[in-house]
Each structure stands twice: as C-alpha cells, then as structure tokens.
Specification:
By secondary structure, this protein is an alpha+beta fold. Helix content is 22%, strand content 44%. The strands form two sheets. Strands 1, 2, 3, 4, 5, 6, 13, 14, 15 and 16 form a ten-stranded mixed β-sheet that branches.
C-alpha cells in the first residue's frame, strides 16, 4: 500500500515541475552530496506524491490517439530513495488498476511492476524502465480465440469448476477434453488430462504429450511468461524487456492542471513503447 502523505496545494506539483525542467533539459545529472541530494530529490518526491493523490482511487479516462481507455487506478507506489532521486532514479514503481475498458475490450484488473525506473534528460525527457513485469486477468473468450485460430475444428472453454476444456465444433455434445495450460516461449501448451462425457471422467496418462498452439504476435517484444486459470478468466503474466515513454513537459503540466481542477480525463501521446 502507498504510504500516507501530506495533502499538497494544487500548484505544488507545477512548481516542482519548474524546478525539474532545467535538469531534464540538460545533457546529464551531476553527482551530488547527501545534502544536495535531498534538495534535488524534493521536487521528484513532490511530483510523485501529487500524482498519487490525484490518481489513486479515481476512475480516469486516458485519451491515446483516437482511443479512450477508462480505468480505476488502485495503486501507484515507489520507495523514492533520496540518493536515487538526485540522479533521476525512481527505482521500482508499482502501478495497478481495475475495471479497464476500451472499445469492446475489458480487463478485470492489471498490475505493472516497473524495475529500474529512471529519467533520461533531454527535450523531451524520457522515462525508462527495464524490465517491466505485467500481470492481468483476461476474459475467458481469449482462450477460445487462441484455440480457434490455431485449430478451427476446436473450441476452447473455461468451466465453472476452474478447468479448461476443448470441444469439437461439429459435435460439442460428445463431451470434451480437459487440458492443463502452460507457456513455453511463444506457444501455449495444451496437455490433455482427462476425457469428459456427461458425468463421466476418464483420467489420461501423465505422460500424454502436450499440443503446442502458437500465441498471437505481441508488440514491443512483450513475452508471455505464465498462464493460469482463474474464475472465468485467464491469469496472464508477461515481461517487457525495456519500456520507454516520452515525458513532454507541456503534456505533463496539462495533466496535472486538469486533475488538480477536478477533471478526470486527459490525453497522452503514447503510454507504451518498447525497446523494439
């Protein structure tokens, strides 16, 4: 959970942004002593604390190009060590949200843990994290989509008892094949565990080979690392080797101003840009 922080004036983050702009627009950040580190760290901490207060617990709409993403931010946290902040290092940052939706798509929740987060000075400055670990609960329909693309004769379903099954499209009433799921590289493994017909269930040998289904190509070198079954959902973990985001000062100032004045929507040029 995020630590309790003092309530700030609405214009405090803008003052902090002014203090940081000269650092971000320079060619680099100098090494500083302990006393100077506290002074340089202060505006970073003010800016991060302000974003915590303005975002956590709020449902916000983020405009990304021609797409609006609606979500409720549930967590925004970082240790924010002064010595690291003095050279633009935020360390590990954890961001979580729920009720995420865009267009016809829905996610129950998602968590991103950004490691080694730091600011690269420049015009505009760039936020970099490497790596980024992602986890989310995907709708049950995703499983069927992946199976159907690989084997059109089959359909995939997630059952209320927490199992995954495959059925023949032409004869769904014949029963199903209960399977375990795993991920190896860029493929989804479907390992048969039991044959099911009505109320009867026949266990299959533990050495029954798995059928490998290719996963859809993901952008920015995003790699799925684990899949498990949830209640009517797929719990998916993924890894992004490196993530970068431009941090235009004018856009950041506009976001802070809008949120400080009570608006719960803003636009941003891009939120996801991998190293590739």
């Amino acid at each position: 959970m995020s630590p309790k922080v003092p309530r700030l004036r609405w214009d405090d983050p803008l003052r902090a942004l002014d203090m940081l702009s000269s650092l971000w627009s320079s060619s680099g950040l100098p090494s500083v002593g302990a006393g100077a580190a506290q002074a340089v760290a202060a505006p970073y901490r003010t800016l991060f604390t302000s974003l915590q207060q303005l975002l956590v617990g709020k449902e916000v709409t983020v405009g990304l190009g021609d797409q609006d993403v609606v979500l409720t931010v549930t967590e925004l946290d970082s240790a924010l060590e002064p010595q690291g902040l003095a050279v633009g290092q935020l360390g590990e940052v954890r961001v979580a949200a729920r009720d995420i939706r865009w267009g016809e798509q829905r996610l129950q929740h998602a968590v991103a843990v950004l490691h080694n987060v730091h600011i690269r000075p420049g015009v505009p400055p760039v936020v970099v994290a490497a790596p980024v670990k992602l986890s989310s609960a995907l709708p049950a329909s995703i499983f069927d989509d992946v199976v159907r693309r690989a084997v059109p004769q089959l359909r995939g379903e997630l059952c209320e008892d927490g199992t995954a099954r495959l059925r023949w499209v032409r004869q769904p009433g014949w029963g199903g094949l209960e399977v375990d799921l795993d991920v190896v590289g860029k493929t989804l493994g479907l390992r048969p565990r039991a044959l099911v017909a009505g109320q009867r269930r026949w266990m299959l040998p533990a050495r029954t080979p798995a059928y490998r289904v290719p996963l859809p190509e993901l952008p920015h070198e995003l790699l799925v690392t684990d899949i498990s079954l949830g209640l009517d959902s797929l719990e998916v973990s993924a890894l992004l080797p490196e993530w970068r985001m431009d941090l235009p000062l004018r856009n950041l100032e506009d976001v802070i101003t809008r949120l400080s004045q009570g608006a719960l929507s803003f636009t941003w040029p891009s939120l996801l840009r991998g190293s590739g």
